[in-house]
Amino acid sequence: MTTRNGLAGDEVISALQKSIRRGKEKDACEFAYEMYITSPQFEEKLWRHLLAISVEDIGMGNPIAALMINNLNMMRKEFQYNESDRAMFFFHAIRYLCGSEKDRSSDLLKNIVIKSFAMGYVPEIPDIALDKHTTRGQEMGRGSEHFLHEASKVIPQAKVENDYKEQYEEIIKKYDPNHVVPSTFVFNPWQV
């Protein structure tokens, strides 16, 4: 595909992304504008790339970037393709991305996992995954107390100003699922 001004579409897309990676705001905006004026379909491709870039190249450098770009993408749809205000949203998105601290580790991790699987790697189920929500965990007798103290452990644990864990611990000491009121709502206990 070629653009409105005869440039190779794949090269324009590549130049857009490389410009954003290097924080070259004006260059990135020029390549984006070339995509925009080519066609509404190429504008869609532009936004798909901006969304991907917000995770692939910005990533943990600015975790809010993906939300910002998605919101700008939604906002631009309130304007017709031929309204100049519509273009303002990708200009703003690019400025935001160029100015953000960048981190490519999500993409690197994705590629590590994909290529490892392609070479035959299969993950092993760790013991911590076997809890009251799995068949093997139930067969091992792992119930709510195990879940409270082991399977629901989070790292790092935020400092909280409540005693809900202690309250729940007291509840499960008294709770018997075989002796509940008839109107008790029953949740599906299975993960899949």
From TrEMBL:
Report the domain of life of the source organism. Answer: Bacteria
Alphabetized InterPro entries for the sequence: DNA_pol3_clamp-load_cplx_C, MgsA_C
Which Pfam families did the record assign? MgsA_C
Residues in a coiled coil are none
Which positions fall inside the MgsA AAA+ ATPase C-terminal domain?
44-166
Provide the GO MF annotations for this entry: DNA binding
Question: Which GO BP terms sit in this record?
Answer: DNA replication
Record-given protein name: MgsA AAA+ ATPase C-terminal domain-containing protein
